[in-house]
Design goal:
By secondary structure, this protein is an alpha+beta fold. It contains six helices and four strands, in the order H-H-E-E-H-E-E-H-H-H.
Length: 160
């Protein structure tokens, strides 16, 4: 009987170990990077790659020489029926997550192939009427963002 129990626990341990080794970054929670800083290339890159159109993310430039700190994100190859609307939604959604996760990020410029948008943390928080750094889960922040993106007039007011 004890051999069977030991075999069971040993098999369970091996199974857990193999499963842990097979985990991949696609299943990472973007909120594991909460508290990151603009100067952390690895964290910023990981955040952006997990956000919408991360596969279309071409590169970035971090601006850390003088305050306020920010970043420029370059995207290419986004295909959508209403491309300008998709650019706007992507900029707002991704900036919301970046400002929630990156402590010292104050502005983000999004360079799409045919359009550029710049958002500041101050303007976005004013638009939402909420402090973005208070959010602690992806689901909460996604719900907030989707609610505001539904109002096309509000979106256009923010990105005029």
């Amino acid at each position: 009987m004890t051999k069977a129990i030991r075999f069971f626990f040993f098999s369970l341990l091996i199974l857990l170990f193999v499963n842990g080794c097979n985990s991949n970054s696609a299943n990472e929670d973007v909120f594991e990077f909460k508290g990151s800083y603009i100067g952390d290339n690895s964290a910023v890159g990981s955040i952006v790659k997990q956000l919408p159109y991360g596969g279309n993310f071409k590169g970035f430039e971090l601006k850390t020489n003088e305050e306020p700190y920010g970043m420029i994100l370059d995207y290419e190859g986004i295909v959508a029926e209403e491309i300008e609307k998709k650019y706007k939604e992507t900029a707002i959604y991704n900036a919301t997550f970046i400002f929630s996760l990156v402590q010292n990020g104050e502005w983000v410029t999004f360079n799409f192939e045919h359009q550029e948008y710049q958002l500041t943390k101050e303007n976005l928080q004013s638009w939402y009427g909420k402090e973005l750094n208070e959010y602690s889960s992806e689901a909460e922040l996604r719900k907030l963002t989707q609610e505001y993106l539904e109002d096309e007039n509000k979106v256009n007011d923010l990105l005029k």
